[in-house]
Amino acid sequence: MKVKINLDQLIEGVQDVMKAVSSRTTVQILTGIKMTVDHESMTLTGSDSDISIERLIPVEENDIVHIEIEREGSVVLPARYFSEIVRKLPNDTVEIEVGERFETTLRSGSSEFSLLGLDPEEYPLLPQIQENHVFEIQGDLFKNVIRQTVFAVSTSETRPILTGVNMKLEDGVLTCTATDSHRLAERQILVDTGSEDISFANVVIPGKSLNELSKIIDDSAENLQIVVTSNQVLFKAKNILFFSRLLDGNYPDTSKLIPSDSKTEIVLNTKDFLQAIDRASLLAREGRNNVVKFATIGNQQVEVSSNSPEIGKVFEHVMVDEMEGEELKISFNAKYMMEALKTMDSTEVRVLFTGAMRPFLVKPTGDQAIKQLILPVRTY
Amino acid sequence: MKVKINLDQLIEGVQDVMKAVSSRTTVQILTGIKMTVDHESMTLTGSDSDISIERLIPVEENDIVHIEIEREGSVVLPARYFSEIVRKLPNDTVEIEVGERFETTLRSGSSEFSLLGLDPEEYPLLPQIQENHVFEIQGDLFKNVIRQTVFAVSTSETRPILTGVNMKLEDGVLTCTATDSHRLAERQILVDTGSEDISFANVVIPGKSLNELSKIIDDSAENLQIVVTSNQVLFKAKNILFFSRLLDGNYPDTSKLIPSDSKTEIVLNTKDFLQAIDRASLLAREGRNNVVKFATIGNQQVEVSSNSPEIGKVFEHVMVDEMEGEELKISFNAKYMMEALKTMDSTEVRVLFTGAMRPFLVKPTGDQAIKQLILPVRTY
Description:
DNA-directed DNA polymerase activity (chains A, B); 380 residues; Beta sliding clamp (chains A, B); 3 domains; alpha+beta; DNA_polIII_beta_cen (chains A, B)
């Protein structure tokens, strides 16, 4: 293999596939990035066996030549070193030449690196995906879906299935759900399944995979193709294939957790409420598990408070725009509430309580697509 | 005490004194910030007993009123909580009222905090400074002096005196020196001692103190007053007093370490050289202690190289602008060289060698005020 490639293109590509490379892998070949050049493109691959990313750099794009190919071929290069080197090379191009026993020379300006490469034949094959369930979704929209759900996955391995986001597709509606059993995030979205009427359930994508995916896909309205199989999901964007394994097991039925009625309903300004909770939690962090108290106090106001015997106490008053139903005193984890509120893009939120000991719902006003459910804490 | 104060002013002041507050102190009162209000200002104090910072907020400045005083007084507030709270308060002012047993109420907008304060009488007094050695220096200039020396102090406590920067004042020239015994940084600067002819030596300021000082003083040409006593140094800037204890012991005589002649002299572009070393060190980090090889190779070039048997090798060629004297091969720690080069503001640097096993000198061209000395490593 011998090519000359535009450095910016290479850096971008390497950065993308590095998202899948883990420094903690025990499989030596997976500490590398696989690079393959044929007559029309360079393909970079990174994998930690849970996530695999394939990134294409076309020889030419919009009449700009990215790669000059002298000899096609393939090699696996040490990922961490290679990615650091390319970011620091002095010129705007680099010549890459694979020699005997995969020893690879990188030449750029007055700089010459020689890296011990590995045999690309030893690199594992990417999952073979049969395209049985395919649908499309706008990239920026899907990034939002990830942002609004993935924070709620469990970080504990006691119930591994809860470390993922569950996807269900039914009647053209995609429902994404995450829960760590203390709170739950749900986002629904209409998707384009083409002429087919596809549906599936219990497709559980590891939270980590979605976080990495979110860093790679553009903030653009360009479509993301999603291919679901029994044990893998593949996201296809321009020049990128992102594979993730799915989690084994049955995701719990969460539909019954979400209350359908309410006894107290409050509408308040998202930002004011978020900031009040944020301040109240300042004194609740230590020894109090970040729990704050919330109470309706009449006069179109709610009070958020916290008391730490060694430090002091805090009272926050927030004006409400609407309040209906019973008086209420309830306690909850401030972090859960803040994370829930941060998923809301609306100026106002609606909070629906069904009593001090029952889970309550936070939703944007005038939008049923996002539901954030939080379990209260017993203190009052 | 009861006052209403502009929040931005308070946040800035608290941020400054927080630089002296340590979360690891065992003295409970020092986990607090002392706040004192008299008829003309609020004074904030923070200290970890090595560093003490006193910050003044005037009642009025440039016809703008910062503080409205209802009742003078004093209190010590829990530093970490107080600093986090003020940064998040909703209004642009806060009312601070000290009640019984130093319980302090902070009111801002719809937010009300009540913090358990401590008795200010228990707060240690600041060092009493007799102004025997006083001189002045431009703030931005002194920040540069710190930047160009403090990085070279020792981080090991085996010789505590080397964890500080030594200051010597003689004939109106201030010499600042730092060394960890592998490299040495020296910066000289002319200072204004007024009409007096003051001189001192062996004034060793802890590196940590200078790093914190550097964060506080403005990047302006405003003068910094420096007061030196036998065991304390005091830096006075506008509205700020910064005290640091000095290190006990005798700083080693470093003047004989700096070679006065040279056998090989090379002038090269600072940035090109820095980047070449940076790249060469990429393969030198693990198992090789970051050591790179440097050699004159004729043709107005030098070569920087490194070889890591498991990863690969790198050769960097750098054009030199001047080269005089003997051919040379030498090895050194890339980190030391990079840190030395980063202190140089000149486009070109001069490197003076006196043989492969002798310390060598890096200087800006046409400026004798900065000297960076590096000990080579035996490998060739």
